[in-house]
Amino acid sequence: MNARASPAGGTRPPPPDVCRRLERRLRRETRGEVLFDRAARGRYATDASIYQIWPVGVFVPLDERDVATAIDIARDLRVPVLARGGGTSQCGQTVGAALIIDLSKHLRRILEVDPAGAIAVVEPGLVLDELNAALSPHGLWFPVDVSTGAQATLGGMAGNNSCGSRSIAYGNMVHNVLGLDVWLSDGARLELGPVRTLEGRAAKIAAFVRDLAASHAQTIAARWPKVMRRVGGYNLDIFDNQSERPYTADGEVNLAHLFVGSEGTLGLTRALRLKLAPTPPHRVLGIVNFSTFRAAMLAPQHLVELRPSAIELIDRIMIDLGLGNPSYRPLLERALIGRPAAILLVEFSGEELAPLRAKLRRLAEIMGDLGAPGSVVEIIDAPSQRGVWEVRKAGLNIMMSLKGDGKPVSFIEDCAVPLEHLADYTDALTEIFAKHGTHGTWYAHASVGTLHVRPILDMRRDGAAGGAGTMRAIAAEAAALVRRYRGAYSGEHGDGLCRGEWIEWQFGAEIYQAFRAIKHELDPIGLFNPDKIIDPPKMDDVALFRFAPPSAPRPYRTQPLSPVLDWSAWNVQNDPLSEQISAPGSGGDNTGGFAKAVEMCNNNGQCRQFDAGTMCPSFRASRDEEHVTRGRANTLRLALSGQLGDDALTGSAVRAALDLCVSCKGCKRECPTGVDMARMKIEFLAHYKARHGHTLRDRLFARLPDYGPALSRVPALANLRDRLPGGRRLSERLLGLSAARALPRWRADTFWRARREVAWASRDQVLEAGAAGGKAVVLLVDTFNGTFEPENLTAAAHVLHAAGYLVHALEKRGRPYCCGRSYLSVGMIERARDKAMQLLRALEAFAQRRVPIVGLEPSCLLTLRDEWLVMHLGEPAALIASNAWLLEEFLAREARAGRMSLALRPASAPILLHGHCHQKAFGAVNAILEVLRLIPGSQPRLIDSSCCGMAGSFGYEAEHHEMSMKMAELKLFPALRAVPEAIVVADGTSCRHQIRDGLGREALHAARLLERLL
Ligand SMILES: Cc1cc2nc3c(=O)[nH]c(=O)nc-3n(C[C@H](O)[C@H](O)[C@H](O)COP(=O)(O)OP(=O)(O)OC[C@H]3O[C@@H](n4cnc5c(N)ncnc54)[C@H](O)[C@@H]3O)c2cc1C
Ligand code: SF4
Ligand code: SF4
Questions:
Q1: Average pLDDT of the segment spanning 766-770
Q2: Is the CB–ligand 1 distance for residue 262 below 6 Å?
Q3: Is the pLDDT confidence value at 786 over 90?
Q4: Where does ligand 2 bind, in terms of residues with CB under 6 Å?
């Protein structure tokens, strides 16, 4: 092979002419996507580990024929092949100088479900949560519940022998795979299953493994870790089980189990046959509170006797993080007794509730026997249980969002030790961290002795405080502990690059040679995922680091940049012991913090989720790595660090990666590390447009607040584009406005030109009332509502009046004040700043007197709370931001405080709510529901939708129309079609247009519905 381990221990790609031939042949002989440009390769050069290796190219097969052909071509050309699912591996097993085959886009069918036999057969690119959603009507699930279930694929889970929180009840992947259908490196396809059923080649392989294991039986018995959570190396023990939990309940030997956990090094999986489990109808939680961390670590060995379905640890640091979050605080406070040092979530599940309650009582008794009476809080109701599980997740997310170059690093994050040693092991490892000037937060699977902990290290630094050296020192000491306590060094996430070199240490030279023999027998030409498991590089080879330190052959350096927005909050460093952050701007980033904000993406892949939340609509519609937050962040990082060539930030690759980002801000809220791609897109656009100039269409969209009032004086002329035959086509050709779209209808009776029956208060009246603590607000008259739907503004005023408020409408002599949003959306930062400054000056006096600033258009009002804070607008911006409210947020707050009530009539139909993405990003959707619930008898339902697809101007752009409609069809349109009689509430102007355009249904701003029911 060409791409073998280099003398330095890294990997190097095949010669360029081979890469070119590979690309040509893939294009010619397959129907899949062939991605060989530098940016595409760069997006697949990383996974959720600290490593980065450039692949030879990326292939996204359309079907299994494509996969088989690609394997054949790669074998002909001697180019290694690396299968990839979600790319969420934490140890580097999904990166390599190989042809990456991304199976997650098209190979994700459920091939068969046998509910009676509790078996499913699936393709490898299927995501776990998608499978479970399909199984739910049968009362079944696939119980390997990894935390990454919304993005991890079954192929990747088998590759890593993944394990879920409930592994104590259900086992790991290896315990739940019944069979695999794989390609070997010579192109043969084999069905792997119970050995007694095998014939031909598969039977021969089984005989080979059996003989190999037999010849090393004594060493295997002596050296093999016995804990259930051993996932390192190959499963050579299939014929002579060494695990405390045998791979099969009846002792049957299954050859597929050899491939589980082999990290794609033995073959490429075409399909998986999975063992399903009945979904338990009941679950209960006992939260055990501990006064010391050690006590929490001593308890699990006793608690497992109760046969719980999970025991999960949350330590003090994580508890405090959870308490710091207003939405989790009440849930957590319910679960806590005083201020514990740690809690264990002990879950029981089963068919009947009564026996589970009995188990909770027994749990309390055991804790009493252990000297901690009254330490258990019972949580029976499902929503509260979900909340507590969420707290654990949220705590981890906040931990991962530490700003600065020191980050929690995965390399000893899943060692597994027998439960009787858990307390001594965690004590000793904590001391080791302190000795090396760092610390870690402990959490996760106490039931099986696998606790996650990641010391904070700065991988960009060399020398004594450098990441590489400290990582090795800690790894060596942790490994000695694991050996002392007869545990497994690799207990959940796999070996990859960070633990590969420890396989021989763990199993000894003899067994390692047996592993080598397995690889040679199954993949003699070393086609599949080279340098993993067999002959891995050193874990601390700095040449393979994503953020390579100065001593590396190609150190990671960013190119200087003057950002247009204020990114100084990211330009900081942290103290690995205290996690204290240095002052904004002190981090030494030559891009003012922009690069460090981009680098917050640790590739965990949560933005690839397809179902819950908002993030990331363009990925949901495209399933392309290029069009997901992670792909965008990686493209930006590579561009900023010069890895995509000179001036790449303003080049076509970054433009293409950001093109389908609809700036929904879903990632701002839902990305665990707070990657805010919408803001990054503004920064990018400013630089890109400075180099390439603005188009006429950019100007049209941006300057609407300027020309809108004038154009609305001649609506007949303004509406010609939609009236004249051929008008739409012409506008598509000349301006790039989609001919398939109607534009918002211009009208003469704008807010400014046709005053309605509203008793507006003057500026002075409102200021005076505000200063006296009276009920008064200033209503922001935004361009969109003011120009196209002035009824919404008057409706808001009527509602506010009915609630007893004076209302002053903020406008600028017959035209709107503009927040700057439309200019920001095309990267016209200076103009946006001018506009924002004008509005800021107009609002300042109201904010100083604490007169609430109320707005209707989510994207405009929330610009005051978001972008304004980084546009260098000065001190008043923060004051205004803290006093700016969406109408419903304001009403809900006032109702909660008992300052207002509304006498409303019941609605005539069910109410469906579509939240604007920015409302979701700012947690403002609950307030709308709260206000809609003021309507007697109403049970408003929030549509579980992502972006509607219109996203400001995005959906009007000819090249984006199809994508826009695809986004709407994912969830929103089907949900609306399902309830044709419903009243649809949507606060976003563009959301309402999308609904009208796509379904011919009228959606209302909540203000209008409330007004109707007054
Ligand atoms: C925040 C976070 C939380 C996590 N939590 C858990 C957890 O709770 N439990 C857990 O076990 N893991 C966890 N992981 C690790 C990871 O998510 C899991 O291992 C997951 O199952 C990997 O799935 P994937 O689709 O991303 O696989 P990938 O990372 O794409 O691939 C994993 C391995 O499988 C191989 N592979 C993929 N497809 C095939 C195929 N068709 N044929 C052959 N080989 C293939 C790859 O080459 C690679 O070696 C976590 C990771 C993160 C970032
Ligand atoms: S953008 Fe956020 S959610 Fe997506 S991979 Fe990066 S860190 Fe994870
Ligand atoms: S802003 Fe929205 S579309 Fe853009 S990356 Fe974030 S989640 Fe995706």
A1: 95
A2: no
A3: yes
A4: 601-607, 629-630, 633, 667, 671-673, 675
Ligand closest in space to the Cα of 44: 1
Does 136 have pLDDT greater than 70? yes
DSSP lists the bridge partners of residue 194 as: 254
Kindly report the number of other CB atoms within 10 A of residue 612's CB atom.
11
899 vs 292: CA distance, rounded Å: 45
Give how far Cα 506 sits from Cα of 156, 455, 510, Å: 24, 22, 11
Q: Determine if ligand 1 sits within 6 Å of the CB of residue 672.
A: no
Q: What is the CA(986)–ligand 1 centre distance, in A?
A: 38
Instruction: Copy the structure tokens of residue 414.
Output: 């899943």
Q: Given its phi and psi angles, is residue 118 left (phi above 0), alpha (psi -120 to 50 degrees) or beta?
A: left
Full DSSP string of 459-479: TT--STT-HHHHHHHHHHHHH
C-beta of residue 799 within 8 angstroms of C-beta of residue 1006: no
Whether ligand 3 lies within 6 angstroms of the CB of 617 is answered as yes
Average model confidence (pLDDT) for the chain? 95
- 153: which 2 tokens? 């694929």
Distance 162 CA to ligand 2 centre (A): 20
3-state class (DSSP) for residue 451: strand
- Give tens-digit pLDDT for 200-221: 999 999 999 999 999 999 999 9
The phi, psi pair for 157, rounded to 5°, reads -65, -40
Is the model's pLDDT at 320 over the cut of 90? no
The Cα-based distances of 784 to 639, 744, 836 in angstroms read 36, 9, 16
Assign 466 a pLDDT band (cuts: 50, 70, 90). Answer: confident
| Ligand 1 pocket check for 604: Cβ under 6 Å | yes
Name all contacts of 976-981 with Cβ < 8 Å and 24+ positions apart.
976/912, 976/914, 976/943, 976/1001, 979/910, 979/912, 981/909, 981/910
Average pLDDT over residues 36-40: 98
* Three state DSSP letters for 789-818: CHHHHHHHHHHHHHCCCEEEEECECCECCC
When pLDDT is averaged across residues 439-466 and rounded to a whole number, the result is 91
Q: Whose CA is nearest to atom 3 of ligand 3?
A: 661
pLDDT band at 777, cuts 50/70/90? very high
Q: Is 43 in the pocket of ligand 1 (CB under 6 A)?
A: no
Q: Which atom of ligand 1 is nearest to the CA of 602?
A: 53
φ/ψ of residue 125, rounded to 5: -85, 0
Span 958-990, pLDDT tens digits: 999 999 999 999 999 999 999 999 999 999 999
Contacts of 843 (CB under 8 A, 6+ apart): 778, 810, 853, 876, 880
Atom from ligand 3 closest to the CA of residue 676 = 6
| 3-class secondary structure, 313 | strand
Q: What is the model's pLDDT at position 396? A: 64
Is the entire prediction scored with pTM above 0.90?
A: yes
Residues paired with 808 in a beta bridge: 778
616 upstream amide cis, omega within 30 of 0? yes
CA neighbor of 499 nearest in space, from 416, 621, 404, 618: 416
Secondary structure element (H or E) that encloses residue 264, with its range: none
Tell me which ligand sits closest to the C-alpha of residue 167.
1
The SS3 call for residue 90 is coil
Mean pLDDT, range 11-40, rounded to an integer: 94
pLDDT band for position 392 (50/70/90)? confident
Average pLDDT over residues 245-255: 95
Buried b (16+ CB within 10 A) or exposed e, 423-450: bbbbebbbebbeebebbbbbbbbbbbbb
Q: For residue 231, which ligand has an atom nearest its CA? A: 1
Cβ-based neighbours of 122, under 8 Å, separated by 6 or more? 108, 109, 110, 111, 131, 154, 271, 272, 274
In angstroms, the first-to-last Cα distance of the chain is 77
